[in-house]
Amino acid sequence: xxxxxxxxxxxxxxxxxxxxxxxxxxxxxxxxxxxxxxxxxxxxxxxxxxxxxxxxxxxxxxxxxxxxxxxxxxxxxxxxxxxxxxxxxxxxxxxxxxxxxxxxxxxxxxxxxxxxxxxxxxxxxxxxxxxxxxxxxxxxxxxxxx
Length: 146
Description:
- Belongs to the 5'(3')-deoxyribonucleotidase family.
- One of its GO terms (molecular function) is 5'-nucleotidase activity.
- InterPro entries: 5'(3')-deoxyribonucleotidase, HAD-like_sf, HAD_sf.
- This protein is of the alpha/beta class.
- The protein contains 5 helices and 5 strands; from the N terminus they run E-H-H-H-E-H-E-E-E-H.
- The chain has one domain: HAD superfamily/HAD-like (Rossmann fold, 3-Layer(aba) Sandwich), CATH 3.40.50.1000.
- 31% of the residues lie in helices and 14% in strands.
- It has a 5-stranded parallel β-sheet with strand order 3-2-1-4-5, with helices on one face.
- Helix 4 links the parallel strand 2 (62-67) and strand 3.
């Protein structure tokens, strides 16, 4: 069975929505490092279609969540686990991998919005979410599921 890795931030989780909810004081205090805000990741909503999309992929692929977590924000690590437990309890169970070196994971596809943290060196196909032709989950599912 082919392996698919799905990034969290901006692919499963609506990071920009969370930024919009921050107070101006927090934005100023953590300017340039918004992901360092303690507990920031705990209540972020899913991207439209992400939960259904991940479940659909899980029916056809060996699917994992592959994300980074800020080194200077230890709450982000547990917040990401809790997010998966809340939003993908069955299909995400023990399928969360946190790594700053995504290229070390072997698989067929990586769905990620960026090329950072080793995504650019991933040996399988990098599907860059949010960029043409993969603007949304419908486009990703059409490509991977036909």
